[in-house]
């Protein structure tokens, strides 16, 4: 026993002496999954122009990305949520554009347009049947994302008027893909997905008389603004990388709508 | 120095090396446990263990950390999975151990081993596209439910359970079986009166291994259970388990917050449950 | 077999058939979606984000290299723990606890280990999220599995063999190395094959530690998306038009790898057993 204890203490005290792995040519990006596709594609192109650099992208959600950035464990945070001081103070943001949040409804619900207040009441769980809003007699099933989701935060802020008011009976799915599949398969389901994408098997909901149109994306009111955050002392390479991503012209193909001038940062 | 004393010296050196490996092994395990304990300690001390564990409301934004919904979800889903998997696994084991001849049994074991190694993401997605709609048609609810999770989990643990069962059945000495048949017992009678009782301890321990696997499964369950944190016991309604809640809420609670500690408590609870299973399994180890 | 009294056996056959059909349906749906996409271009190509027709070559390379490296570390370390416990082990309270916790850690959720690995390696030691970090997470997660299966393999060797060897005047290390190990080798190889299969399928522990993208240039510090993580990624956020097919095809490759690996390790075990 004594031997094992001594060994354990020795290993424990040796841990801080393990050489820090010097990886100055490694850029780590962590955070929201909503822009993973865009950041992954951009990272690959950027690395081609900057041989020798390794850009590592990992998931974990907006909050986790910001906190790890604040602690200096990653170089870049992807987030749909504005940083709070206790997570990451003084960080600099590079918005990638606006990512529309689209509301999708199962086909059998028989509803394709609602008012903004009605949408809020549905998501709060106060409207229990589609018949109440002119659809089929079928219970409403709200499909949401977990607390960590930036999309959920945006919906709570922009539609529900604050955190914590989301229906407690909502089903939880971890990603846009799973939400879409769930809404398409579940009669009476309603949910939200980020980004303009193919929406097979669901009805895209018009809210308050407006429906999302890619030719006039700024007429649609519900958006998340995925942003890349870096620490103020970021290295030139990191800054070059985030600026490159924030300026690439093909962002629209990933559903990102460029911000109007003046709204940037 | 004789050759033998040189060998004895090698023996001592080797013992030190092996001891070091085992020490590192213990250190890594203890490290994981300690990190969970350190993360959860403050919460347990602050709210009081029982209040933290026995609350039925999970509303972390409002400071409520009741874990009952998740403990109940874990128990219900695991129980359902075991109940479903037991008869099917036993059927497979009986076929593998007593019906198939020649290369049949080993082929079946190989197939089952492959199925046991299928990544959980595949099981989860298949559950989402097939099991959930079936449960929905059958129950009229949303389909995402404790029952769906139990069914998917049953499919995941079934191959492991069947392989272990088959192994337990084949370990009963063939001479006993031949004796039973020679005395005029039918195959069914031999199976029920001789083989099952003789393999009882190993069958039970196999079941405990399956229970432990079911307790720890995360990805696949999360996709079909619905993730609803309100405590309810209806199998056809959505729910959540300890592992799925760790998965969904981990990203929102940074280390150091009360929410993170609550999740660490959940992880500790899981480990405690598995430790209990191992202890129970030990008691059956030397039972004939 | 006796003619009468087969009701239970027939019922078992029926139930087993139904179970087999369920799994067959599952595999069939995977094949139906993924088969049309399987091609050399898929196996040797690079993944694409928006266009159809991407490949999984870097993911295959990452899966191979990470599993191999993790194996190279934990095969000897796991065997060492097993030898220490079975051949040299004393039976006192803390060794019993060690054995118990080994079995507890067999079914610990991957995400818990992934997080701890992240906190220690990335947060404390400043390693990048990378192939090497992911490899360490895989190794830690599967070390107990190798240790337990190797321990079971060694414990399966009859005691008489050890006694015979020791009676000839050999030391303990000669006994386990030359008498016990060859006897235990076939089941040891089988256990290692299963461990590698477990690692191939792991995703939860790697999302934080190895990243979800691939790099144009491979390296220990490069991001290490494996096949299982790629499958998770396509199913959750993939924007490519052929996402369903891509995911299924990735699943088929993953399953093919697992089957090939288990087949190879079983053949090797069989060969060792015959040669012995």
Protein described:
The complex is a heterotrimer of chains A (265), B (288) and C (276). Chain A is of the alpha/beta class and 265 residues long. Chain A folds into 2 domains: 101 residues, Periplasmic binding protein-like II (D-Maltodextrin-Binding Protein, domain 2); 121 residues, Periplasmic binding protein-like II (D-Maltodextrin-Binding Protein, domain 2, 3-Layer(aba) Sandwich). In chain A, 29% of the residues lie in helices and 20% in strands. Chain A is elongated, with a radius of gyration of 22 Å. In chain A, 51% of the residues are buried. The model of chain A has no long low-confidence stretch (mean pLDDT 83). Chain B has 2 domains: 45 residues; 226 residues, Orthogonal Bundle (MetI-like fold). Chain B has a two-stranded antiparallel ribbon with strand order 1-2. In chain B, a hairpin with a 4-residue loop joins β1 and β2. The longest helix of chain B has 45 residues. Chain B has 11 helices and 2 strands; from the N terminus they run ααββααααααααα. By secondary structure, chain B is mostly helical. Helices cover 75% and strands 0% of the residues of chain C. Chain C is mainly alpha-helical and 276 residues long. The chains are: A alpha/beta (265), B mainly alpha (288), C mainly alpha (276). At the B-C interface, α1, α3, α4, α5 and α8 of B face α1, α3, α4, α5 and α6 of C.
